[in-house]
From TrEMBL:
GO terms for molecular function: nucleic acid binding. GO terms for biological process: DNA integration. InterPro entries: Integrase_cat-core (IPR001584), RNaseH_sf (IPR036397). It comes from Chitinophaga tropicalis. This is DDE-type integrase/transposase/recombinase.
Length: 235
């Protein structure tokens, strides 16, 4: 994913890893976060005075509220300036090709005394958690597999010919654990989808009770809110 941030799924995974007594370093590696971000959230979690199990039971909104940063006792002008620009930063990160290093480089041109990269990323992560609050859904282990194609095509260089080859990307996730399977495919046709699904289920070593997609045209012949018509091959 471009513009990585700590969303609610990752935050819940962080709580699970803390519950299992993972070190800060190992959590940062496991979740692909910088260590300062992990440390900041660990301190906030400890400051709530609640155990990990209680926090995991909260809805996304309640969990985000519980971990919202406390107001600083001394006003830091760098923090004040960052907060005044936070909406701009968050909107820019949603644009294709905008990465945090570029955003900070531009920020330093207008405010040279701003935070360094690590602190800047930590503050962005905090704001993205609050912005990313969504409806809480209860998932059971292995019950649902969610599938879709990534929005943008990717490409690779064929070693033999140096030819640039476009490919679509199939993504599947088990929402309870966040375990993910990703596979590049030649195209988004039904045979390629079936190939990816078979490979995915072999990778997970099991079959879920339900496979869920968002009206994927390869799977759904006739969309409907209540009774969509599915392709026989996938039924």
């Amino acid at each position: 994913m471009p513009n990585k941030f700590i969303n609610m799924l990752i935050l819940r995974r962080l709580l699970q890893l803390l519950q299992r007594e993972f070190s800060m370093r190992n959590i940062a590696i496991e979740l692909d976060l910088n260590r300062e971000t992990v440390s900041v959230y660990h301190k906030r979690i400890e400051a709530t005075g609640r155990n990990y199990e209680d926090l995991l039971r909260l809805s996304d909104g309640d969990l985000a509220a519980a971990l919202q940063p406390r107001p600083a006792t001394a006003e830091d002008p760098r923090l004040i300036d960052f907060m005044s620009r936070k909406e701009y930063f968050l909107n820019e990160l949603e644009k294709r090709g905008v990465i945090r290093q570029l955003l900070l480089k531009e920020y330093k041109k207008v405010y040279p005394d701003c935070y360094g990269y690590t602190k800047f990323c930590g503050l962005l992560d905090q704001q993205l958690v609050l912005k990313g609050v969504s409806m809480y859904q209860e998932h059971r282990v292995g019950e649902i597999l969610q599938i879709d194609f990534a929005g943008d095509k990717m490409s690779y260089v064929r070693p033999e010919t140096r030819e640039l080859v476009d490919c679509v990307v199939f993504v599947a996730i088990l929402p309870y654990s966040g375990y993910t399977y990703v596979m590049a495919l030649a195209d988004a046709t039904l045979p390629q989808l079936v190939k990816a699904l078979n490979s995915c289920l072999r990778y997970f070593c099991g079959v879920p009770k339900y496979i869920k997609c968002d009206n994927m045209k390869q799977a759904v012949i006739k969309p409907s809110l209540y009774e969509p018509s599915l392709n026989e091959l996938l039924e």
